[in-house]
Amino acid sequence: MESETPRVSFISIVDFSEDARWLFLTESVSDLLGFEPRELIGRPALELVHPDEFSQVKQMHYDTIREDKAAALAYLRLKHKDPFKGYILCAVSRTVVHSVLVGSVSFATPGGKALQNTSTAQEVEVVTPSAKNFELRRWGDPSPMTSSPSTPDLASRAACASTDSDTSDASSSRSRSKKPTIISFNPLPCQSPRSALILDRFSIHCTVLYCSNDLLLSTTRVLGRSFFDFVTSRTEHSVRSWIDVIKSWGVNDRGQPSDGGFGFGKFVLLLAGRNSRGENEQDTPLSRRRLGDARINYRMPSSPRCASHSSPGTSSRSRPPSSSSSDQEISVDAIFSGHSDGILLVLRPTSKV
Fold first, then answer.
1. Greatest Cα pair distance in the chain
2. Torsion angle, CA of 302/305/308/312, rounded to 10 degrees?
3. Is residue 105's pLDDT more than 90?
4. N or C: which end of the chain has fewer CB within 10 A?
5. How far apart are CA 212 and CA 242, in angstroms?
6. C-alpha pair distances (Å), 167 with each of 43, 125, 173, 262
7. pLDDT tens digits for 180-223?
8. Between residues 167 and 204, the one the model is more confident about
9. Phi, psi dihedrals of residue 289, rounded to the nearest 5°
10. Do residues 33 and 76 lie in contact, with contact meaning Cβ atoms separated by under 8 Å?
């Protein structure tokens, strides 16, 4: 069974309700769990959780929202549509983005990929007892989305952690041993002013496929355009290099696009947008099957598998006005993660660089 399960990951969004209802899913959910996105939209995500883990996962859902968590990872079992396949052990990531939970679900398998996921996550909780081997000895690491964020670059953040703790299973053990709190969803307030974008990972331009809200960028303005249109020219090179790293991380042991842990960075967002493309520059197709060989490759096809809204005709839009005035720029902290269907990017305002 395990060898037959696709090593893919899908991006998902659930609401703050007690049932954690699905609001958005990308198409790889059908590869991993057998459901089409339309079959799950509006249904409780918790109904797929294994009965033995339901109470703990429900508490985890509430705690994630209440504590405004980001880049948190959990290992738990989710039900496959095919009853003969039973429950699939999954790695579920989640980040609070204003009024929703944004994250991903991927097939959990031990090895290098699991090490990469757990070592870059801000919190790891093992719900399924048989997944204890996914636990990792970690040093304490401050969250990148706290009220007073640190500002390391992507490479140093992924490679280094502070040395104020060397407890072997700190966050997961404390979470399981603490006394359960009373769960109340009536109502939970909107949390930090964060926005989530899904970018086309198969395009050198990283076209914006989805925008969760208008807190930082106008949804109607960004959809269908290159993400780099909204990155200042002076920080574009760094952001491109970070995304290249995330793309290279997000390849599974079969050479297929999948998940690959979290990367953290800081750059300047250009609210009005600009034209980041060359006059005659176009995406050059590349078969998705060659992604494993390509590793970091600037010639990836623009063939998004995102099961949300598409934006036909947006490539021919007129150029937006460019502005370098301070009121058109905002410094942001970012969490990058690669998945089978795209790059997930979570942004929140921070101090000026």
1. 61
2. 30
3. yes
4. N
5. 22
6. 38, 14, 10, 22
7. 566 666 766 667 889 999 999 999 999 999 999 999 999 999 99
8. 204
9. -70, -15
10. no
pLDDT tens-digit readout, 229-270: 999 999 999 999 999 988 888 666 666 666 778 999 999 999
Comparing C-alpha atoms, which of 10, 3, 6, 1 is closest to residue 85? 1
Q: What is the spatial distance between Cα 48 and Cα 21, in angstroms, rounded to a whole number?
A: 11
Residue 308 phi/psi, 5-degree rounding, is: -120, -145
Sheet holding 87-97, edge to edge: 22-25, 9-15, 100-107, 87-97, 72-79, 123-126
Query: Could you tell me which of 257, 214, 235, 221 has the C-alpha nearest to residue 344?
Result: 257
- Cis omega (within 30 of 0) for bond into 312: no
Give the other-Cβ count within 10 Å of 117's Cβ.
25
Tokens matching residue 127: 């719900």
